[in-house]
Amino acid sequence: MGMFTEQLQRIESLNSVYNALTTVFDEPDEPTGPLAGVLFSVKANIDVAGQATTHGLKSLTGNVKTADAPIVARLRAAGATPIAHANMPTLNARGMHTYSELAGHTINPWDATKSPGGSSGGDAVAVATGMVRIGIGNDGGGSLRLPGFLNGVCALKPSYGRYPQAATYGQQEPSFPVQVLTVEGPLARSVADLRLVHELVCGWDPSDPRTVPVPAVGSPVARIAGFVPGDPTVEEAAKRLVDAGYAVAEISPPRVEEASELAMRMVATPIALGFDDFIAFAGEDLAVYARNLLAVRPGLDIGEFLALTGTRLAIQREWARLLDRYPVVIGPVSTTPSFEPDQDRRSPEALAEYFEAMKLCEATSFVGLPSVAVPTGLRDGLPTGVQVISRMYREDLALDAAEVLEVQLTPSVSAG
User: Is 43 a catalytic residue?
Assistant: First the structure.
């Protein structure tokens, strides 16, 4: 096992407790490059050459891929080693909690009775417990930021079009909501590692026409920030930015309620249109979630979908104007500090409470903005944190502010 001996032993010991990784790959080679020795996990809906992209389904354990997804290929080229696929909600549904029919429940290392979040929860727990240094997941409404928040690690949701995604969710032709909402990105235990990954994997790729040829770091801007009032963690973060030399003001982000609702109705639309086929493929477990989802976020008809394209552009324009004045905005990842593993299955009302708590994540995914989730400490034994939102293609501004705010948390974990 060479240079990976100690890390592989840690994975074997801890994964039996936390169930974060579904498939640990064969003994890796000893690569060279700037990230040589760095192990990373990959969400089970992102392709790794020679491994099955299962989406958490038992029926897809034979879905072996011949090539890496672009983000995996770029990290591998820098010397990092993909070591395992990580657990995720089956088919990426039930995104608030990481449970799959293939692997079962992933455990929150801070409190085993609470959800580790989702949908990139397996990667977040693997990072939090030190099984891997980096996790690669995706986010279309908080699926990197929520598990980062709940597990006390950092997460970067990049701008739409920032990283190449030739086969989002393992499909060559993803559905419309997936195309415009979901982006791949990293989880790590430090903002510095997020920045390292970002600078390695961003940039144009001919395999993905959505990618943009924009430098990883932009021109300097004034250190001005806005913050969303009402959350004590956010307000404390605003004070820290003031101490670091930022001019900070209270702001009201535009049309958050509308954007968050439309984002989830976009997600619900293909489920509504093909409900019987979806249930036949996904099974009754996901039928409970799908019915709750459609009760609170019904799918859009064709007229509503056409109107949405104009509404989305208008909301993007309003956010662009806000961020022209305030280059970064601080807000909550979730207004609820923790969730129960079965909350999305209890009732439509319980699922609606989750959407309300996560509405800033949903809204920023709808707009396509970059955001960094960063831990800021502990309260009552659970991690606290905020998200730092910035201008399109200016992840560097969010990373700069997040470095001011970060508190690196190391949960006391063992296999005993």
Answer: yes
CA distance 198 to 98: 25
207 part of the active site: no
Sheet-wide strand order for 371-379: 21-24, 81-86, 39-43, 134-139, 183-188, 154-157, 371-379, 382-390, 328-331, 224-227, 247-250
For residues 148 and 155, give the distance between their C-alpha atoms in angstroms, rounded to a whole number.
6
Specify whether 157 is catalytic: no
Q: 33 with 79: CB under 8 angstroms?
A: yes
d(CA 139, CA 368): 11
Catalytic pick from 41, 100, 120, 143?
143
Q: What does the pLDDT look like over 13-55, one tens digit per residue? A: 999 999 999 999 987 778 899 999 999 999 999 999 999 999 9
Tokens of 117: 């979040």
For residue 61, which of 47, 49, 72, 51 has the smallest C-alpha distance?
Answer: 51
Q: pTM for this structure?
A: 0.96
Continuous segment of H or E residues that includes residue 8: helix 5-18
- How far lies 343's CA from each of 52, 289, 292, 317, in Å? 30, 10, 11, 34
Which residue in the list 41, 100, 119, 260 is annotated as catalytic?
119
Enumerate residues 6+ apart whose C-beta is below 8 A from 279: 286, 287, 290
pLDDT band at 170 (very low <50, low <70, confident <90, very high): very low
Catalytic residue among 41, 43, 100, 157: 43
